[in-house]
Structures are given as C-alpha cells and as structure tokens.
Amino acid sequence: MAKVRNWQLGREMDYPYEENRPGRQITMLFDLNKCIACQSCTMACKTTWTAGKGQETIFWNNVESKPYGFYPLAWDVKVLALLGEQAQPWSGNKYNGTTIFEDLGMNQRIKGYLPDEMDYAHPNLGEDECLKILDGEGDYIKGPTHKNWGFFFPRICNHCTFPGCLAACPRKAIYKRQEDGIVLIDASRCRGYRECVAACPYKKSFYNDTTRTGEKCISCYPKVEAGLMTQCVTQCIGKIRLNGFKSADYDKIMSKQVRENNPIDFLVHVRKIALPIYPQFGTEPSNMYLPPVHVNPDFLSQVFGPGVENSIKQYRNAGKDKELLAALLLFGVTERICDTFKLEGNETVGYDPQGKEIVRVPLTEPVYIRQVKNLKTGAFLTNNS
Amino acid sequence: MKKLLIAASLLMIPVATPAFGSDAAHGPAKDLTIPIIATDNPGQYGGHAYHGSFKRLPPVRLDGGETYNVGVIKSKAVKGEIPMDPVNRTWHQEDPVRETSYNQYNQSWEQAPATIWNDASATEVPMGPQNLVMPGLVVATVPMVKVKSVHNDKDIAFLLTWYDSTKSETETMEDKFSDAIAIMFPVKAGSEPSFMMGDDENPVHIVYWKAAWERDIEFGYQDVRDAYPNYNYDMYPEVIPAIGQTIDTPIRRYNEGQRQYVAAFKLRNISRVDPERLTPVEELNAVGFGTLTRQATNNATGNGVRRFGYWSVVIKRPLNSGDVQDAVLTPGSKTMMAIAAWDGKNKNDGAGGNRGPRKNYSNGGWIPLEIE
Ligand code: SF4
Ligand code: SF4
C-alpha cells in the first residue's frame, strides 16, 4: 500500500498504487436544489450508451430519492456499515475514520460488497417512505421516522482520483486517462471478475449479463474530447448540471493556486460551495454537489462531509452575491464546456479555451408583461381574463 | 420407467430427507448427496487416508483408481486415441437414495466397463487458499484435487476430480460465478518459473476449464433469456425487426454494426463472450499476477461432467503443439505442473464467489510431473 494525499479527507491515506493525478479532471457539478427527478438524464444516458442486450438493469446515470431510495438497493447504507456505521468522525476538515482502503480484513484488497442481482431490479423500493402518509402498515422500511424532507439525488460515476474500481481490478484492465481523468474499463482485457463492481463504493461499475464483462460510465468521452458536455448534462431539464475541468494538482489545490475564473474551480475550491459525495469512502470523487438547503443537516453532513453549513449559507445568499450567481447561472445554458467565465455588468459570460465567447446569460431575466388582450384583434393573450 | 419405479419405491422407506426432516422429532436433516467435509478429521477417499478432506468414500466409482502416488503426478503411456469422457457415460444414472449409480439395465457401478482412466495411478493434490496477493481466500474452498494423467505419442490428457457441493455454471447473472479449474506448466523446458503465475523471465502456459463454458456448449451461449426466462424488454436498438429479428435473436446472428451495442463482443473478447465456443477450455500465458493473456490459437480441448457432487474434468492437449507459447511435454521426461481451482458459489467476504485471485492452488506450488 502506498500513501497518497486526499484533499477531501485533509490527510494521507492508504491506496494500492502511487499517487498519480491527471493534468486536469473532468468534473460534474449538480445543484440538488433544482433536480425534479424527471429522469431525462437517465434516459439520455441509457439511450446513448446502455440500451443494448445485457444492459437491461444498467444505469450509468440514475436518480434516486433520498433518504430511502437507492440504486442498487441500500448501496450507501451498506458501504457505510462496512466503514462502521456511526464511526466516521471528522475533526474540522480532517477525516479520522477509515476509508475503503484502510483497516482491511485478512483476505481483502478493498472493503466492498457485491450487490445481489435483485438489488438492481428493485432499486427504489421504499423510496417514498419519507412521506408520512405511508407510515404504518405496509411500509417497506421499518426504522426511525423523521420529519418530512427528501431530495432527488442524481448520480453517475465520479471518475475518482483514487478509483476503487481501478484499484480492485486484478487484471489492471481499468485505467484513468492522464488528459482528462476519465476512468475507463478495457472491455477487451476484462475477464468479468466483478471486483470493480464489489469495490466501487458508489456502485457505478456494472456487470453486463450478455458480454459477461464490466461496464461503467465513460463520461461521454467522444463529446468531452470535442469540448462538449456529456449527454446527462445537456439533456437536463432542471438545468441542475455543469460539466467542466477542475485543477487536479494537489499542491496547487492546497495552496489555493487554482483558476478563479474557471467555473468549476471557483465553485469547488474558491467558494467551496460544491461538495464531494461521501468523501469518507476515500476515492476522492470528482463530481461535486450543491446540497439541498431544506434537508436535515446531519444527514447532509454524512453524505457531503463537513462543508455543508458553509455551502448552504452561501447558497441562501446567492441572490445578493453576484459573483456566485454568475457561476451558478452557467448551469444548463450551453452544450460547450466553459474554460473561463466573467461577470460583465449584469451578465455572466462563458469562454472557450481560446478565449472566445461561448455564451452570455443575464443575471436577472428580463420581464415582459403580456397584455391580457390583443387590442387590434380582440383575442385574449392570457387565460386569466 | 423401471428406474423411476425403483426410485419411487425407495423413497417410501422412512428416511429423513432434507425436504421433511429438519425438526427436532426427526433429528437433524440428513443431506443425502453431500459428503461431510471435515477439515479436522482424517479422511478416506479411494482407499487412501489423509487429513483435511472428505470423510466418506465418493458414492460412485468415477474412474477406478487403486494406485496412488505421493507428491508426484505420473502420466501413463497408452495406445490409441484418448477419449474425452471423464467417466463412463453409460453408467451415469444417479440414485441419490442408494448413493450409487447404475446403467439402464440396473447394473451397478461395479459392473461398469473400465475406462482409459481405470488403470492410471492417481495423485491427490492438497490445495491451499491463495492469500499471497489480495483479494484472496482465508480458507481453502476446494481442499483436494485428484489428478490422473495418460498420454499417447501425440496427446497428453489430465483427469481432474474434486468435490464441490454446489454446481455453479452460470455467469449470466451479476452475482453468480462459475466453478473452474486450471493447470499450469513452465513454457520453457527445464525452467522454474515462480509458481505465482510465472515471472518476467519465465512465462507459464495455462489451460483453463470453466463450468459455464461447458453449459454454453451444451445448451448454446447463455444469455439474459436463459438467466431470466420471464424477462421482457421493449426493444434493443440493435435489433432489426424488418429481417425478422426479435429481442431473443441470439447475438451470434448480429452483424458487425449490431455488435457495437455489445461492446466486449465487438472487441472480440472471446474469453468472455464467445457464442461460437467449441471447447470449454482456453489456453493462456502469464508472466506474473495480472498478466494473464489468452492465446490466439487454442490447441487444447476439455470435457467436464458432474456426478454426486464431484466434478470430473478431462483436459487434453498436444504433447508438442508447435505453438511457441505452449509448453512442450516429452515422453520419458520430468517436468512440473501446478493446479488452481475455483468454487463459484463460495462467498468468502460478501464480495462474491471464487474467481480470479480468489482461488485455491496446489499447496507448495509446483508438483513434479513424470511422463512415462
Ligand atoms: S465512482 Fe466507482 S466506478 Fe467511478 S471511478 Fe470511482 S470507484 Fe470507479
Ligand atoms: S435531467 Fe436533471 S432535473 Fe431531471 S432528473 Fe436528471 S438531474 Fe434531475
């Protein structure tokens, strides 16, 4: 085991390979306050990549209803249990518990579990249980009840800096690309051991029943190579997602030498409003979330780590914080990846790597007041006559 | 018909069967097909006593075998073709109550005609859990493999027999793994590669048999419909209804364009997806852990059958295939071999059954092989 530096944990940790960070890291940001669980992203991905034979229950992108929705069933609860359910202590920004790579049993390489095949068939069993109307007889989940809150949680592969899937593969058939940090399975070398399925704590590596090989999210690399955002981002109706490249150099991240004019670096490293998903797993996931402001903060802290309070405070103030608003308004406005952005008066502008303007969005949408009646023709223009 | 009657009448005898007899009044259930594995008791198998394996005789004479070698595998010279049958196929009707087998004339196994394996001497190879690289096993899941070998002037064949209480022969479900066995030789004659799948200077040659491939050959390439007979799916985008294709069209009928939807198939990863499979074995080379690579040409053949909880697998390969990647085995010489075995059902830590490095290997690594 090598020692690697994980900025999300604020400490070094064990990992089977030496630290090897990509030049830049493809990243997806999700604003969880806006997701409406329409599953457009799920279908965009499914129809593009996983509609073939053997991929029936594979969803590289899924949206689950938290706290009781899961895909596959109970995935995060089970991984948390492997780490010691209540024993994931943070002191400040430092994680004092164990990751999936630490404190291993005698025959283990990584702490993981292989989901039952049925766990994929009933992914959201019990997801509506946060609604009080379902309490009592007939509930699938018998456990502590909580006040009514819930949120929709879209998830894809996190193209981790220290991927559990990659570390687990005895064939070394999984690799992380230096140019953009995308994690890929070599389908011609895979021997179907499903070690990646068992090891990925996010359960984002899958098994194809027809080809008997592992398959996982490819971050739409043909699009990303062309400077475009992935299918799930561009098809998102709620405009909750943003694709881009984030600084990956550890020393630069720690000394705040990141690119303030890059929308991803700005939201992740400068403002720290976008937070990693289950950082305590130890894989340093690249995808980042803006936590939903109305959800129980204890639950959010378990999922997104110690930055939740700061994130929510900023989000609630975004209306007054023009710089933050400028970055947040880039979500869902263009298919092209913005290299930099700038606040220009009352507009936010996104630029490509050559500095050419890609998109321009007003911070406040202009308001038009439509007349009730077309005075010339007498036709009603609204229905509240 | 006669067989059925016998079986039915025997079932009338009030023995505690697994289906009925588990409550206190009947005593514990007696599982009639599973020999008792006792790691702490001396065992008896084929008249040979040892520690750490099965307590009882195997309930059927699989291949004769009264002579045992210790610490060496001896390959017997035979005349003529070596048949691929591990056990006598006409003697395979099972009677779980009497724990014996008989043929259609109700003759018991004592009357079974001898196979080519009957007079070959056997070697019982104790197996240990692979725990040198992680992930591994804590305890052996296949504690013992019995090996016999014969050769003529062209081919050499190995009969591998081991006990496995569960038959695992599907890989068409996310959480199912196949039973398997592999034999390994140094590629270069006289070299001594690391028994851990060879090393940089000394490659090894591996022949690998898998139960799932045996099933593919017997019933056709196993696909989602075989694993989930009641499944339905609206339509796969690669299917062309205009030429009569449906969701059940086997993928071997897919043209190159359609195969793009079945990525590993398009990439010809035939270790995993081979709808045209002809043999349940594949040949591989390795120069250490993580380097296992399938050979382009397959010269080996195999055949496995299961009787009373025992897998019996014949692996046959040319003594000298002419393939530079293959080990050359010469009659009258001494070399060595190693064995690895997988119990597909056995879950060791919640991370799934035996596969890859979660395997058993011949204790001590290499075993001397004397070719008569
Ligand atoms: S999320 Fe899972 S599949 Fe994706 S890179 Fe991380 S460990 Fe691998
Ligand atoms: S498309 Fe966007 S809004 Fe719809 S479910 Fe996916 S992430 Fe949520």
Specify the CATH architecture of the largest domain in chain B. Sandwich
Spell the H/E element sequence of chain B.
HEEEEEEEEEEEHHHHEEEEEEE
Taken together, the total number of domains of chain B comes to: 2
Radius of gyration of chain B, CA atoms, in whole angstroms: 22 Å
Unreliable stretches of chain B (pLDDT < 50, length at least 5) are: 1-61
Number of self-contained structural domains of chain A: 2
The whole-number mean of residue pLDDT values of chain B reads 80
Q: What structural category arises from helix and sheet content of chain A? A: alpha+beta
CATH topology grouping of the largest domain in chain B: Immunoglobulin-like
Overall mean pLDDT of chain A: 92
The biggest beta sheet of chain A reads:
4 strands, mixed
The CATH class of the largest domain in chain B:
Mainly Beta
Question: Which two chains have the most extensive interface, and how many residues on each?
Answer: A-B, 46 and 48 residues
The rounded distance between the terminal residues' Cα atoms of chain A is 72 Å
Q: Would you mind describing this structure in some detail?
A:
The complex is a heterodimer of chains A (385) and B (372). Chain A folds into 2 domains: 2-297, Alpha-Beta Plaits, CATH 3.30.70.20; 337-385, no CATH class. Helix content of chain A is 19%, strand content 19%. Chain A is built from 11 helices and 17 strands. Chain A has helices at 40-49, 75-83, 164-168, 195-199, 221-225, 231-234, 250-254, 263-270, 297-304, 308-316, 322-328; strands spanning 2-6, 11-15, 24-31, 62-66, 90-91, 94-95, 151-155, 174-176, 183-185, 205-208, 213-216, 241-247, 275-276, 288-290, 340-344, 347-351, 357-362. In chain A, the strands form 7 sheets. A 4-stranded mixed sheet of chain A has the order 12-3-14-13. In chain A, strands 15-16-17 form a 3-stranded antiparallel sheet, covered by helices on one side. Chain A is globular, with a radius of gyration of 22 Å. Chain B is globular and about 60 Å long. The relative contact order of chain B is 0.18. Chains A and B meet through helix 4 and strand 10 of A and helix 5 of B. The site of one iron/sulfur cluster has 14 residues of chain A, from helix 3.
